[in-house]
Design goal:
The complex is a heterodimer. By secondary structure, chain A is of the alpha/beta class. Chain A has 2 domains: about 15-185 and about 295-385, Rossmann fold (3-Layer(aba) Sandwich); about 190-285, Rna Polymerase Sigma Factor, Chain: A, CATH 1.10.1740.110. Chain A is built from 10 helices and 12 strands. Chain B is α/β, with parallel strands linked by helices. Helix content of chain B is about 35%, strand content about 20%. Classes of the chains: A alpha/beta, B alpha/beta. At the A-B interface, helix 9, strand 12 and helix 10 of A face helix 3 and strand 3 of B.
Amino acid sequence: MPETLSSTSVGLVTPQVARFDTPLMLACGRELPAFELVYETYGTLNETASNAILICHALSGHHHAAGYHHIDDRKPGWWDAHIGPGKSIDTRRFFVIAVNNLGGCHGSTGPSSENPATGRIWGPDFPLMTVTDWVNSQAMLADRLGIARFAAVVGGSLGGMQVLQWAMSLPERVANAVVVAATPRLSAQNIAFNEVARQAIRSDPEFFDGWYTEHQTLPKQGLRLARMVGHITYLSEHSMGARFGRDLRTDSLNYGYDVEFEVESYLRYQGDTFSTRFDANTYLLMTKALDYFDPAGEHDDDLPKALSTATCRFLVVSFTTDWRFAPARSRELVDALLRAGKHVSYANIDSPHGHDAFLLPNERYEAVLGGFMMRIANDVERAAGDNS
Amino acid sequence: MRADLALIYDWVPQGARVLDLGCGDGTLLAALSSQKQVTGYGLEIDSDGISRCLEKGVDVIEQDLDQGLANIPDDTFDLVIMTQALQVLRRPDLMLDEMLRVAHECIIAFPNFAWWRHRLSLGIKGRMPVSRSLPHAWYDTPNIHLSTFRDFSDLCRMQGHTITDRAVGNGSREGQWRHRRWPNLFGQDAIFRVRR
């Protein structure tokens, strides 16, 4: 698509693979004997390795956060609006790492990888991953890349939960934490939506208890429904109304069940494209990781206590029309951080785009994120100057 | 730094835990943190102010003061500061109690409506005063609870709080801040230091 790459793009990027042959103990009690992580980097690591930023991805995200893989790619990476030269996360100043989480379906070891013990693909036997497992695996990648401490760990939605986990369990390795459109725990309603998505997948006759690959098929219908219901929760009532209203695809009502309203067509399209490019077992596993995340639950429902180990500076960002992880959830986190006496800043960004707003360009969002990141870059460069 | 902020800066003890209500661009907190090892947060709703705080490394939380401070436990701070915000609040009296719940001491700066020029404008000219400290016209002012130096003293007494220090001055000029003989008449801006 981009005939010439703009000066604010990181340009063409090539994913890299890191292989680990040391076993990873998982929260579920099992262990991964060996695994691979696929990741991308943008920018240059400085001499003291103090300018590294880790980007954590959300439910359907991956390692391709910025730039293009091929000159004819239609779209850039999923967070290209905020990562690049001169952007909020400025790749002229930072070394940015984006990694595909374990259990994913974009190259890192996951349900579609081969299980070395059986020689078959893992499929539904792939262990359930937790946010903590992801953080531990990301830390192994950081070791491999020579990064003892991140200038910032940054993520939205499920990515924000990984940021929190980094701050709590590896405080000495995180100088700053940016938690966007996230929540310290899922609500009953959040879990309910996830369960509908899971049931849609698991009740698809093509699912075969997760062994669909061996049956040379895909649970496309289930994944399509899961994505459709998920997608509704990512948008706001207002943004759907503004974009589609009650507009019809046809000239008049046809008194049938084919697509009539624009919004139906849009959801079907979203579901269709997702159902062929995303793995059903990965989707199931990611929704479970969301459901399980509950640091306060491990500390007598005391969130300030759970956060007590953190030493970094936090930036928490929410969006006014996000009803999936509403601003009130971010406020809970901010209040808990305040009670725990931590460095925390908070901004509630006015946006009509619901949960999806965290992925989109927005002037104020960029001022907030950019301002916070600029201060970090200044600190990093000042410290590096003092050392030399 | 603005003269009123400079005076407040002098009143803040070394290493205090401070909450700054309506912290603006974070100038005061940034100076207090770098030179007096003060820790704490600013609350602000202005988006530009919040961005400037973030650039300075000041911890700032987007929070509407009219929603109160219910999210902050008792005695979280040593000191609460509020400059030029009292008069825009829906219930300044409740806020005063809230400030002295989350800290044992507060510093409040506000425009004195009884300053002689304000009186002149209203009493002689018959017009709502417009001045440096009250820069808005009556129809677009955010100030809904204007008060005087004496009014505020009465409020503190009525609510059982102790005024430990106070000053008046012309905030736009350095070195004008003092304990004037006729503060209610000659002070354009007032600063109170109050304990519970």
